[in-house]
Amino acid sequence: RIAYVNGRYLLHGDAAVHVEDRGFQFADGVYEVVTIVDGKPADADGHLTRLSRSLKELSIPWPVKPATLRFIMGEMVRRNRARHALLYIQITRGAAPRDFKFPKNPAPTLVLTCRRTAFQPASTLENGVAVITMPDIRWLRRDIKSTSLLPQVLGKQKAAEAGAFEGWMVDDNGFVTEGCSSNAWIVTGDGILVTRQPSNEILNGITRLSILDCARDLGIRFEERAFSVAEAYTAREAFISSASTFALPVTRIDGKTIGDGRPGPLCLRLRQAYMDHIGSTDPV
Ligand code: PMP
């Protein structure tokens, strides 16, 4: 396995960053996860666009030109002989003597790793996954894909301990914001697809945006609005979306069965449409 650190391709085990990297000290950095399916990066344009936005919001300069990053991504796929893999891209404000303020001459750190992935087993797609709900205890710039992920670390751990695949975080008004590492969707009794509107309160998922495009193309009615936990319990279907899971059916929320307890037809249609959109067949 090969990793990339600031201009060098290294054996994964030899790759390292400075002990005073601000990513390490302050989580002062941003990231993207791009899924490689059949050797091709899925939705690369969308992920690079969002990376650019995250950097701008935090005034972190690009460590290399976007076109160079695209080249490095291709090199990582090639050097790792990646067919089905997750490409992780992280940019931090760089190494500097520990001080909260930005360093005078920032030299951002760029790291890429590539991990071959087993996608969810087919049984996951056949049965759907369970989620549990939990209070959303994060900061108010969730639109920035920052490496500051402690609430999600705690949330995912809690979900795992409850035997659930994902945690759905809930705002003070009882409305679902999003999953710990995914966007949250339901289909109402009237067959309307619902997912929360983009704002500072959620990460605008690249997979989310592509699935909305698919819904538009298929003529599926959708609404971008918040939905409550109570509405989710009585939904016809529920699912999550992310770069690594695509559209993945949710069949239980807090132990309650959703719909007929089987993966929903609309979710599976959108999953197929998403695969067509990225020009691949479903690896699961
Ligand atoms: N929300 C959160 C909090 C996430 O961490 C992720 C995945 N990184 C998503 C949504 C889904 O985004 P994407 O479709 O771009 O992977």
TrEMBL record:
Reaction(s) the record says it catalyses: L-valine + 2-oxoglutarate = 3-methyl-2-oxobutanoate + L-glutamate; L-isoleucine + 2-oxoglutarate = (S)-3-methyl-2-oxopentanoate + L-glutamate; L-leucine + 2-oxoglutarate = 4-methyl-2-oxopentanoate + L-glutamate
Gene Ontology BP annotations: amino acid biosynthetic process; branched-chain amino acid biosynthetic process
EC number: 2.6.1.42
Top EC class of this enzyme: transferase
Pathway of action: Amino-acid biosynthesis; L-leucine biosynthesis; L-leucine from 3-methyl-2-oxobutanoate: step 4/4; Amino-acid biosynthesis; L-isoleucine biosynthesis; L-isoleucine from 2-oxobutanoate: step 4/4; Amino-acid biosynthesis; L-valine biosynthesis; L-valine from pyruvate: step 4/4
Required co-factors: pyridoxal 5'-phosphate
Functional summary from the UniProt entry: Acts on leucine, isoleucine and valine.
One Pfam family linked to the record: Aminotran_4
Organism of derivation: Niveispirillum cyanobacteriorum
Family: Belongs to the class-IV pyridoxal-phosphate-dependent aminotransferase family.
Protein's recorded name: Probable branched-chain-amino-acid aminotransferase
GO CC annotation terms, alphabetical: cytosol
GO molecular function, one term: L-valine-2-oxoglutarate transaminase activity
PANTHER family membership: AMINO-ACID AMINOTRANSFERASE, AMINODEOXYCHORISMATE LYASE
